[in-house]
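Why predict the complex rather than its parts? Because the way molecules touch one another can change local conformation, and only a joint prediction can capture that. The input here totals 714 residues.
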Amino acid sequence: MAGPSVPATFLLKDELDIVIPTIRNLDFLEMWRPFFQPYHLIIVQDGDPSKTIKVPEGFDYELYNRNDINRILGPKASCISFKDSACRCFGYMVSKKKYIYTIDDDCFVAKDPSGKDINALEQHITNLLCPSTPLFFNTLYDPYRDGADFVRGYPFSMREGAKTAVSHGLWLNVPDYDAPTQLVKPLERNTRFVDAVMTIPKGTLFPMCGMNLAFDRELIGPAMYFGLMGDGQPIGRYDDMWAGWCVKVICDHLGLGVKTGLPYIYHSKASNPFVNLKKEYKGIFWQEECIPFFQSATLPKDCTTVQSCYLELSKQVKEKLGKVDEYFVKLADAMVTWIEAWDELNGAPAAIANGSA
Amino acid sequence: MAGPSVPATFLLKDELDIVIPTIRNLDFLEMWRPFFQPYHLIIVQDGDPSKTIKVPEGFDYELYNRNDINRILGPKASCISFKDSACRCFGYMVSKKKYIYTIDDDCFVAKDPSGKDINALEQHITNLLCPSTPLFFNTLYDPYRDGADFVRGYPFSMREGAKTAVSHGLWLNVPDYDAPTQLVKPLERNTRFVDAVMTIPKGTLFPMCGMNLAFDRELIGPAMYFGLMGDGQPIGRYDDMWAGWCVKVICDHLGLGVKTGLPYIYHSKASNPFVNLKKEYKGIFWQEECIPFFQSATLPKDCTTVQSCYLELSKQVKEKLGKVDEYFVKLADAMVTWIEAWDELNGAPAAIANGSA
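Output of the joint prediction:
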């Protein structure tokens, strides 16, 4: 595929890390070279640490395998999943940058309706640098976008918006379906390019997919924990969902915004639905309990840092979801370990000001 | 402009009325002929009742002017605005159909990106006949649309959705901006066609525009009151906003869905921003009080009909917004009169079942 006709500008080049979890050679980066090459990559190698992962020449990267994770975190490495892409959150923790973009290695450059390659990273950065509008819905979508604004009836006091913590991008071609839907609709492909970015309103949860995701690490990083999945755990494929529920509750509490919509990436192939069903089936039951739990979760006013919010949430998880399954007791403990490890590597948190207008 | 190349199907032909408020001849209907002609029109003539409004030949319609409204409603006609398009809600009241589509007479047929004429009415009907998803956000927009579905992580118990009460359509060309934004951006035009329909989540308010709006009269009709605007009132251009706030609170309470997005109409020309500013300026202050009021409004469980919800809301308006300005006391009384008039013309309400899954 050809590179973009106009040279890309490399926004936030020194303030953003690209985190990629992988078990294979990163040939997919060739296609992303015009957009990613100037950025620093953090590669989290999953599975067998003796395997060598090849990274195309010219990329600046650091790579961590399981031995590295164990060495750096010691006993706290128990909070990082193994044999599951949930391990990517280790990359968030070791980064020293303000922003993170994370992408799966089966995601390629998508084309917009005019046939132009989409610079997904640039759009995510635009989303993150521009405010969100969580308190009231704007019917013309992102009011800060060129050619758009707040419509009649949008309260003026809310037009300053809130700081954006998360930018959730979408996928053309293979949509992010659960195993039952994959089984029922094996051939369905997403071909609809919806030219919109929108804020997910305060109080509304959403299914956050980790395939094509950017966030402000300083604002929300410690809540981007992808849980305990994969090897030795009763569940998989709920890592990003878990993070999304926690992140949204905390963003709502702290007055931060979460956006979804553009940019699209091209998701090349569907994972095996039978394997997925095995990973997911407990989650399919559990999410029926988790979602009402997160929908009604409230955090006390004195939780003013992401860390304190997250630790409070872990208590509530243990108390309320611990009754659903023993797994959630273990997960709640891992949430605490995650915060301890985060603070060990990143220093103590400072209280953040409320981001809403 | 040419008619559609494929003959339109006329869904719900005998179950839907098109309500048009106007002060001029309805030449704009010529362009809509291929889509509207088989439907019944209810024309609400505003202003001087001695003026004759010409309706293009071949349309089936009933027309009400101010004399008719006064005759039909008697003293209760006081709840219907005069010299303001808010008078359109009289048409909702006298209709005997299940569905209403209302459109302004400066709205024309828009074209989709392929250049095809958009059958706005057909899309509204599709929106209304298909469930909404107010309880959880679907990142691929309307999950019931062809080629789309619920994404991974969407709780299965919520996939049945809720009944759709309202379909809010958008506008290409002149966007629906308030006077200050019109003044600041006189040349801004909306050219972005966003190919999406979405449910506005439960608990989230939105600015409902009455220019291109459809709803299920049986589900939500009595809440579609456009308030006291225009002649003798201190405010204008908040008629649809007021209706939207009330409707959304009641839909949330009754478990009904509200959608926004497609279809687009082509909004031909901007109204005078100086005139608009005069109409709006009190609203600009008042909405800062109204929106927090509606955001925190709750209705008791025993309000199971739209009417009982609306009467309860009128009490709360009087009690809480009455302190902001005397106008809201008058408006609260008019809300009660509206319901009395509605029931007089339509019979007593029956409790409706909760529409959510």
